[in-house]
UniProtKB/TrEMBL annotation:
It comes from Tetrabaena socialis. Pfam families: Polyketide_cyc (PF03364). InterPro entries: COQ10_START (IPR005031), START-like_dom_sf (IPR023393). Residues 77-198 form the Coenzyme Q-binding protein COQ10 START domain. This is Coenzyme Q-binding protein COQ10 START domain-containing protein.
């Protein structure tokens, strides 16, 4: 069984543009290769720029010849922060929102800790399938933070998924009418990725984060009373 990842407490990043991001940010050419652009948008948000943004993508070597892939994406949504957070924490129905999740089961440990077991979809080159992942969940609604950490998976040696939802203000409408969402994904695959396809693998995780943000945006728009 894989050991549970230690949850790292850290504040949300400030919403930035691609040119303001850290040196690890993807270049425009990289974004084009992945089929992602800063102007990509799911729907017309009027004065509010609601296009999903990939802020950074990094690959780091791990002991044993593996690699850790970390991607950070951000999004603005025309909905109150508490409603977005409520959708993210509706674990029993998350497979109706996020296309990469086939099913989701909510568990409580003997100590009362919240966990989820999900069947997730994967695709690589001409191959595709599903894999099971058991995740620990840590909620911090006062700060708008939600963190998933690995308990067990045959597909990954380590995993952390993190959401941060902040109420918006000023640009785009009255305070509380929209929010800023940040999603980061950090994965260490269980099988070392050959150097020949490492760059392609990085692109897969980049596209996955953008797709997750799109799914969230569409899920909020399709809810009863959504914009």
């Amino acid at each position: 069984m894989a050991s549970r990842s230690r949850v790292r407490e850290r504040p949300c990043h400030a919403l930035t543009t691609l040119t303001d991001a850290s040196p690890a940010v993807l270049a425009d050419d990289d974004l084009d290769i992945y089929g992602i652009g800063a102007s990509t948008s799911v729907r017309d948000c009027g004065a509010l720029d609601c296009a999903p943004r990939i802020i950074s993508s990094t690959v780091r070597d791990t002991p044993g010849g593996g690699a850790s892939y970390t991607v950070l994406g951000q999004l603005r949504i025309q909905a109150p922060a508490e409603e977005v957070y409520a959708l993210l924490t509706d674990y029993a129905r998350c497979h109706h929102v996020f296309k990469n999740i086939a099913s989701s089961e909510v568990l409580r440990t003997d100590g009362g800790e919240l966990e989820v077991v999900q069947n997730c979809k994967w695709a690589f080159l001409a191959f595709s399938g599903t894999f099971k992942v058991h995740l620990g969940v840590r909620e911090d609604p006062d700060r708008g933070i939600l963190t998933f950490s690995l308990v067990q998976s045959n597909f990954m040696n380590d995993f952390e998924g993190r959401w941060c939802v902040r109420p918006g203000s000023g640009e785009g409408g009255p305070s509380g009418a929209w929010c800023e969402v940040e999603h980061s994904l950090s994965v260490v695959p269980s099988v070392p990725v050959p150097a020949a396809v490492a760059y392609y693998t990085r692109g897969i995780f980049v596209r996955q984060v953008e797709s997750i943000l799109r799914d969230l945006q569409e899920g909020m728009a399709s809810r009863p009373g959504g914009p």
